[in-house]
Design brief:
The complex is a heterodimer of chains A (274) and B (380). In chain A, helix 1 packs across helix 11 and helix 3 packs antiparallel against helix 8. Chain A has a domain of 182 residues: Orthogonal Bundle (MetI-like fold), CATH 1.10.3720.10. Chain A has eleven helices and no strands. With 274 residues, chain A is mainly α. The longest helix of chain A has 41 residues. Chain B has two domains: 227 residues, P-loop containing nucleotide triphosphate hydrolases (Rossmann fold); 124 residues, OB fold (Dihydrolipoamide Acetyltransferase, E2P), CATH 2.40.50.140. Classes of the chains: A mainly alpha (274), B alpha+beta (380). Chains A and B meet through helix 7, helix 8 and helix 11 of A and strand 6, helix 3 and helix 5 of B.
């Protein structure tokens, strides 16, 4: 029953099925983005013409630009706030209401997006804020902040507090200590938090639909509304590009991480030898 | 040139009643919730002293150090440094620096940058910083590693970077929290002497916290033995070892045999103690103990003789037993002698000659004996 390299037939079958389940839809989408035919489900030969069409489509390109700006701004703001929240939660372990505070920071992780979106909409209406670019950005800050806080907090738990004490002992003020020691040491976690917030904002549809207004249509909203009128190959092309961007970012991040880890191990072995 | 040893011997400002203490803990108490880490403690440390705080973990020694560094504020009492009350002064404005147990080297900076960190905070000009860093690298023999990051260094090298970094600002006082705890035994022994030389050359005041009595005995001018937030005794290493002030100190530092008994007679400094199981003790070191008092007689293993023959002068300071266990350590032999009541007495003999003239082995009958000035009487 054992195949090559100790793999049983059962293992091979389950892996193939698992990957097919995960990636077959995406592979189909990518293949059909290179379809010559206008009909999405009929193969009419290879072509890249829909990519050209995509770049000439003002509506889609505007939506992509809005999405990128929202993602960049909200990820940056969420990273600042989420990092501060994580520091407060790991450092001040004894303040009154800590459990309530941490619960409230992490609740949005499991909160249904519909509820988050609706409550934000009600808030914006109540305070008379016109819905548009600003409100989408604010909403995205709100829901991505807790993800950043989780990522940064897990790094801070293993952070050696004596590093900060050493910095202060050597004459650095609390602010100086934060910017010269704490932030550089936890920077990898902060960057991952930013990237997570960025991608979450990039593909959010539900919250954006609730909080967006005229002139601030994001790419997922645009795609969704177009699909309701019928899937066009242009949409396939747009989605393929999004997949390419996300895959590239993830690949670069993991290669850098891996290389740093290998270098670190090599250095430590060298140091042990003398 | 005067040798280091002779200068050190004459250095004893604590015996001079007019000497002004450099660091003064005055009735200092520190509580964490219900737990009292340091309890109404007073202590004076002099300039240029190498002072050790020795105690088991949780005795309050690290808390004392952290209060001096400014990481904790005393609940009550005050701490004076060179006459200045330190209350309310944050760690980054205190003229003391600390070497951390974990070394706390900044992992994202090179050795050079680590050492320069404190100087940069002062706003020292770059050229002066470079000069001082070079000086520190030379002092700690770290020049070849200046551009390395901490994870590229061995344990001993990291320890030296931590030392160089904490000395770079030329603090009035250097605080060392278990400075050699992470080094292996051989390196630790070498580094002990290096630290002492460095402290003497730079003329600094060192306060070191340790749980390792050998480390404290080797390095310190004076040692404070701490237990449960109190100081049990402050004295030179020799005084701590030869004249402990209490049963706790005697048993905490080194090996000791302790006989509980009652003073039956006392004349001048000499007293007779009725020990357990017919052992009659005559000692010249009766201290304050009055006639009739219940006391402990403490004697170190190396001050007890073991022989197969009954000692010449009998009646006092001698008792027969059986060799229960024995350990040959090369430089010396350790005997465990069991007395008639089952009590074990530890004795050790230096193996000055290569072969013993009086070989003793397991289950031999043996006499233990000691001189009248070999032990001390403890009342506390």
């Amino acid at each position: 029953m054992t195949g090559p390299g100790g793999w049983s037939r059962f293992n091979i079958v389950s892996i193939v099925l698992g990957f097919a389940f995960l990636y077959l839809p995406i592979v189909l989408l990518i293949i059909y983005s290179f379809n010559e035919s206008r009909l999405v489900t009929v193969w009419g030969g290879f072509s890249t013409k829909w990519y050209g069409e995509l770049f000439r489509n003002r509506g889609l390109m505007d939506a992509a630009w809005v999405t990128l700006r929202v993602a960049f701004l909200s990820a940056t703001a969420a990273t600042v706030l989420g990092t501060l929240a994580a520091i407060a939660l790991t450092r001040y372990t004894r303040f009154r209401g800590r459990i309530l505070f941490s619960g409230m920071v992490f609740a949005p992780l499991v909160m249904p997006e519909v509820i988050t979106g609706l409550s934000l909409l009600l808030l914006f209406v109540a305070i008379g804020l016109d819905r548009g670019f600003l409100t989408v950005t604010l909403a995205h800050i709100t829901f991505t902040m807790c993800f950043v806080a989780v990522v940064v907090q897990s790094r801070l738990l293993s952070f050696d507090r004596s590093l900060e004490e050493a910095a202060m002992d050597l004459g650095a003020t609390p602010a100086g200590t934060f910017f010269q020691v704490t932030l550089p040491v936890i920077a990898p976690a902060v960057v991952s938090g930013w990237m997570l917030a960025f991608t979450l904002s990039l593909d959010d549809l539900v919250i954006a639909s609730f909080t967006s207004g005229p002139g601030a249509t994001t790419l997922p909203m645009k795609i969704y509304s177009q699909v309701r009128l019928g899937v066009t190959p242009e949409i396939n092309a747009a989605c393929t590009l999004m997949i390419a961007v996300v895959a590239t970012v993830v690949l670069i991040a993991s290669v850098l991480n891996k290389r740093r880890e290998v270098q670190r191990q090599r250095d430590e072995q060298a140091a042990r030898r003398g | 040139m005067k040798s280091l040893g002779s200068i050190r011997r004459s250095f004893a400002p604590w015996n001079d009643p007019t000497a002004k203490p450099y660091i003064l803990f005055d009735g200092v108490t520190k509580r964490f919730g219900d737990f009292t880490a340091v309890d109404d403690l007073s202590l004076a440390i002099h300039e240029r002293e190498f002072f050790a705080l020795l105690g088991a973990s949780g005795c309050g020694k690290s808390t004392l150090l952290r209060m001096l560094a400014g990481f904790e504020e005393p609940t009550a009492g005050r701490i004076l440094l060179d006459g200045q009350d330190l209350r309310g002064i944050p760690p980054y404005r205190r003229p003391v620096n600390m070497m951390f147990q974990s070394y706390a080297l900044f992992p994202h900076m090179t050795v050079e940058k680590n050492i320069a960190f404190g100087l940069k905070q002062e706003g020292m000009p770059a050229a002066d910083i470079a000069k001082r860093v070079a000086e520190m690298l030379a002092l700690t023999k770290l020049e070849p590693f200046a551009r390395r990051k901490p994870h590229q260094l061995s344990g001993g090298q990291r320890q030296r970077v931590a030392l160089a970094r904490s000395l770079a600002k030329r603090p009035k006082v250097l605080l060392l929290d278990e400075p050699l705890g992470a080094l292996d035994k051989k390196l630790r022994e070498e580094t002990q002497f290096e630290l002492v030389d460095l402290q003497y050359e730079l003329g600094l005041t060192f306060v070191v916290v340790t749980h390792d009595q050998e480390e404290a005995m080797t390095m310190a001018d004076r040692i404070a033995i701490m237990d449960k937030g109190h100081i049990c005794q402050v004295a030179t290493p020799a005084e701590i070892y030869e004249a402990p002030s209490s049963r706790f100190v005697a048993s905490f530092v080194g090996n000791v045999n302790m006989f509980e008994g009652r003073i039956v007679s006392r004349r001048g400094g000499t007293a007779e103690i009725a020990g357990p199981d017919g052992l009659s003790i005559r000692t010249d070191n009766a201290g304050e103990a009055a006639e009739g008092a219940d006391v402990a007689f403490a004697i170190r293993p190396e001050k007890i003789r073991v022989s197969s023959q009954r000692p010449a002068e009998t009646g006092f300071n001698a008792i027969e037993g059986e060799i229960f266990d024995l350990g040959y350590l090369g430089d010396m032999t350790v005997y465990h002698v069991r007395l008639a009541d089952g009590r074990i007495v530890k004795a050790s003999a230096l193996n000055a000659a290569r072969t013993s003239t009086d070989p003793l082995t397991w289950h031999d009958r043996a006499w233990i004996s000691f001189a009248p000035d070999a032990g001390v009487v403890l009342t506390r």
